[in-house]
Hints:
Number of helices: 11
Distance between the termini: 17 Å
CATH architecture of the largest domain: 3-Layer(aba) Sandwich
Pfam families: DUF559
Shape: elongated
Protein name: DUF559 domain-containing protein
Strand content: 15-25%
Radius of gyration: 20 Å
Amino acid sequence: MQLQLQTRSGESQRRLQDGHGHAEKLFLEQVWWPAVGRFDFLPAEYPISDFKDGDRYLDFAYIRGTHLVCIEIDGYKAHHKDINRWQFADQLTRQNHLILDGWKVLRFAYDEMNEKPRRCQQLILQMMGSWFGEEQADPALSLEEKEILRIAGQTGEPLLPKTISQRLHISRNHAGKLLRKLVQMELLQPASGTTRIRSYKLSGKHRSYYG
């Protein structure tokens, strides 16, 4: 946050100082950091020009290469009590224009981040696997191994050898070998079982590929 403040001025700097409240900090602490482990490419209160030729600020923007992801944090009251129907319609129009300008949009509810942070973390992992999988993959991996990591990031669920066998159309024995190799490379880790691993999940090391 301090690094971003050094590069801002005027209204952009003021919003970063004053507009970043409890909900946004909760997202960083409970969702983004546990899922990704780094804050690279994630400016807060990111300024853009909106369809009315003014300025608006995204809660967070995740910008990597040509990919533009808007992340908005929503409180229930802000959308159902403190705005009227025309303000609500204006918000939808703004979001539509954002999408037409090439942005992907993710929205997180405060209550879900607070009470079910793991579900929100899985959504971030799915985003990384679906939209940035090719960029973050280790070039030393085979196509099958890259696909396994992509599936893991997409689903957010523990992987079974049977599932990989069916998805990749390979034998269960071969699927098990690939999964064990990824564990040895510390890209996967056991999700259940110790002496005999029954299911697998992404490891902390794999999160470094998310930037």
